[in-house]
Each structure stands twice: as structure tokens, then as C-alpha cells.
Amino acid sequence: MVDWLSLAVPLAYLGVLLGSLATFSSLYRKRKAKKKAPAVPETVLKAALLRRAIEDIKRVMALRNQKQALAMLLQRGSVGDDLWQRFQRAEKEMEDEVRDVVAEANAYVPNWGQTIFQSANEMLNNALFRERLQSYQNKLAEEREWWDKKKASIQEGFMKELDAESSAATKSEQATSTTTTTSSTPGTKTPESSAAPSTAAPSDDEAVLVEAADTAAGGSSSASKKKKKGKK
């Protein structure tokens, strides 16, 4: 005869254990569902798709640039057919990638696949322009430093020329002043010239005295002549 009382205890234990496991699993799933990451916004997905289109454009341009060189090498026999076949497979994979991007773009927005690569090309050109502008701005400090040095050297050369011209002008002025001072100063008298008798012309007073004497002599001679005429 089966002892149900002895079997009831382990059966109850198993029931409690299974019930606790079931409640734990349900609670765990609920908490996990609550902690699940939120859905990615559609704008982020569109931006990622544009990024993908930009990378596809870069790869397509690289393949086009390499195709001509590879065709020339294949004609010359420098490369084998296996490399050309791998290149063709890469082109087919790129075409499939472009179709996939167009399909995803149309899935997000109708008819967006027709303009997504145009938008991606504009974004790529804008990024290249910014990179070039940033490189020019990085070189701006070097160019400015070089120009400052060149300007300083030019100014220094001009100052040297001005100093040379001013020094030459001062030297010429000094030379002309020395020549004028030597020509204007009178000759110094030596002792021999001062001791020698003066041979200079008579002064004005002596000339007046001589003229007075001459007139007096002339007057006396005329008076004597008149007296002689009277006696006759």
C-alpha cells in the first residue's frame, strides 16, 4: 500500500520549487523587458544610411580610378586574368551594395533612393572642403611667422640704406663746411712781413693835405703874376 503522506512532502516541495522558479522567471523577463534599450530613432538610421552612401561613393571613385590603370596593365601583360576577375567581382559587389542602399532609402522615405547618393556626394564635397580649409588654417600661423620675418628683414634693409645715405650726407656737409672755413679765414702775418716797411697806398688824410698844398701854391703863383702885370 502506498504511503501518500510520505509522498506528499516531497511533492509539495517540488511544487513550491517550480512555482518559485516560474515567478522568478516571469519577474526577470519583465525587468529585462523594461531595461531593454529604446528603439533607435529614425533620424539616426537615416544618418547612418547617408554615411554608408558616402563610403560607397568613395569606393566607387577608387574603383573607377583603378580600372583604367588595371586595364592598361592587363593589355601589357603585367598582371594576370585572375586579378582582373577579382576586380570585376569587386565591381559587382559594389553594384549590389548600391542597390541595397537605394532599397533601404526607399524603405525609409519613398523615392529617397533616387536622391540619396546626390545628397551623399554633396556631404562628401563639403567634408573635403572643410578638411582643405582646416589645413589652410593650420598653415596660417606658419605663413604669418614667415611673413613677419620677411617684413622685419625688409625693414632692416631699408633702415641700413637710410643710415648709409644719412652718413654720406653728413660726411659731404662736413667736407663742404671745412672748405668754406679755410677759404674765409685771412692769412696770418709773419714777423718778417710786419717788420718790413709799409708799401701801402697813402691814406685819405695825406691826399687831402697834398691837394691843399697844391692849391696854395697855385694861388701864390697867380698873385705874383698879377703883380708883375700891374708893374708893366
Automatic annotation (TrEMBL):
<keyword id="KW-0472">Membrane</keyword>
<dbReference type="GO" id="GO:0031204">
    <property type="term" value="P:post-translational protein targeting to membrane, translocation"/>
</dbReference>
<dbReference type="GO" id="GO:0031207">
    <property type="term" value="C:Sec62/Sec63 complex"/>
</dbReference>
<keyword id="KW-1133">Transmembrane helix</keyword>
<dbReference type="Pfam" id="PF09802">
    <property type="entry name" value="Sec66"/>
</dbReference>
<feature type="region of interest" description="Disordered">
    <location>
        <begin position="162"/>
        <end position="232"/>
    </location>
</feature>
<feature type="transmembrane region" description="Helical">
    <location>
        <begin position="6"/>
        <end position="28"/>
    </location>
</feature>
<keyword id="KW-0812">Transmembrane</keyword>
<protein>
    <recommendedName>
        <fullName>Translocation protein</fullName>
    </recommendedName>
</protein>
<feature type="compositionally biased region" description="Low complexity">
    <location>
        <begin position="165"/>
        <end position="202"/>
    </location>
</feature>
<dbReference type="InterPro" id="IPR018624">
    <property type="entry name" value="Sec66"/>
</dbReference>
